[in-house]
Amino acid sequence: MRVKIIGSAAGGGFPQWNCNYRLSRAARAGMAGVQSRTQSSIAASANGVDWVLFNASPDIRQQIAQTPELQPAADAPLRSTPIRAVVLTNADVDHIAGLLSLRERQPFAIYATAQVLATLEANSIFNVLDPAIVPRRLLAAEEQVALCDAHGHETGVVVESFPVPGKIALYLEDRAHPDADFSSDAGDTIGVRITGAGSRGAVFYIPGCARVDAALRARLADAACLLFDGTVYTDDEMIGAGVGQKTGARMGHIAMSGEAGSIAGLADVKIGRRIFVHINNTNPVLDENSAEHAAVKAAGWEVAGDGMEMEF
Ligand code: MLT
Ligand code: MN
Predict the structure, then answer these.
(1) I want to staple 103 with a disulfide (CB 3.0 to 4.6 A). Which of 111, 123, 128, 213 is the partner?
(2) Among 271, 111, 130, 268, which Cα is nearest to 204's?
(3) Is 9 in the pocket of ligand 1 (CB under 6 A)?
(4) Residue 95, C-beta contacts closer than 8 angstroms, at least 6 positions apart
């Protein structure tokens, strides 16, 4: 099983278009140890030919341009793609907007939960992907699903999805009641366990998660690799940076550090490789020379960059 992290930043990317915080400035200036990153997505393939995307980010055109495996093969038909399916882990803009760039009447399959499928259904712009050409399939939780292309041929990639503590998408929040509780444990956000024929162990992809609880710890035991929500280092980081009023928790994202953070919460779980993805442009770990980056590495974690590839 090959897995490529094609986008390692959170919504907005790094640097974000309108962000003038020190980290975005450093990335724009090309400072050593501060690498730009595109928005949240990975690709997986069991045979090196048929690829499945997990999330379709607004940067998908750039991500395909940077990833030869996702481009039409030289001897392929005039219109073609090795992308056979797209799995959506929630309905956030950074995870679904890239679907609009995959128009042009090209067959592939979309897999998502009932909530995410309902969001696609409710927004007619997604009809640029004609369901007769791009079937939308319900991804049932807690079941092994052999992912298939639009025509029903197996890709070789198998997933098991499960709800994780999260939040409904920002644009679905009720604006009249901004202080209401928009958290959701009911499948608005999911994690996926990815395996395939011949793969050595499972890769878990969980780009959004609000809490590490006992159920998640048990599920992750013995994972070959975990790609986990690395949005913020501290819960109040965006407030401290002066760029916003929201905590990580309010956005449905657990912090890396602290007693309730992901590093502590997963410290005693046996996991092969643990890698942070979905990194927000305020997270100090984006600077490889920061104390926070060193702390994360010392705790056994890696910080994903775009193009990172692994084989299982
Ligand atoms: C998130 O991960 O919290 C969302 O991507 C935020 C957003 O929609 O910009
Ligand atoms: Mn996001």
Answers:
(1) 128
(2) 271
(3) no
(4) 40, 41, 55, 56, 57, 88, 89, 207
Distance from residue 22's CA to the centre of ligand 1 (Å): 21
Question: Does residue 93 have its Cβ closer than 6 Å to ligand 1?
Answer: yes
Hey, whose CA ends up nearest to atom 5 of ligand 1? Answer: 11
Burial pattern 173-199, b for ≥16 Cβ within 10 A else e, equals: eeeeeeeeebbbeebbbbbbbbbbeeb
Name which of 6, 286, 39, 278 is nearest 164 in CA terms: 278
Nearest atom in ligand 1 to 278's CA: 2
The count of C-alpha atoms lying within 13 angstroms of the C-alpha of 179, restricted to the half-sphere facing its C-beta, is 0
Give mean pLDDT in consecutive 10-residue pieces for the chain, a chain of 312 residues: 98 98 98 98 98 98 98 97 98 98 97 97 98 98 98 98 96 93 92 92 97 97 96 98 96 98 98 98 98 98 98 95
* Residue of 41, 164, 170, 190 to mutate, ligand 1, most atoms within 8 A of C-beta: 170
CA-nearest of 248, 239, 194 to 10 is: 248
Cis peptide preceding 77, ω within 30 of 0: no
| AA identity, residue 163 | P
Q: Are 279 and 303 in contact (CB under 8 A)?
A: yes
Match 């039409």 to its residue by tokens. Answer: 72
Nearest to 240 by CA among 64, 16, 21: 21
Selection from 169, 20, 155 nearest residue 81 by Cα = 155
| Global confidence as pTM | 0.98
The verdict on the CB of residue 92 being under 6 Å from ligand 1 is: yes
Strands 166-167 and 183-184: antiparallel
Q: How far apart (Å, rounded) are the C-alpha atoms in residues 297 and 20?
A: 27
Helix, strand, coil shares of the chain, percent, nearest 5, are 25, 30, 50
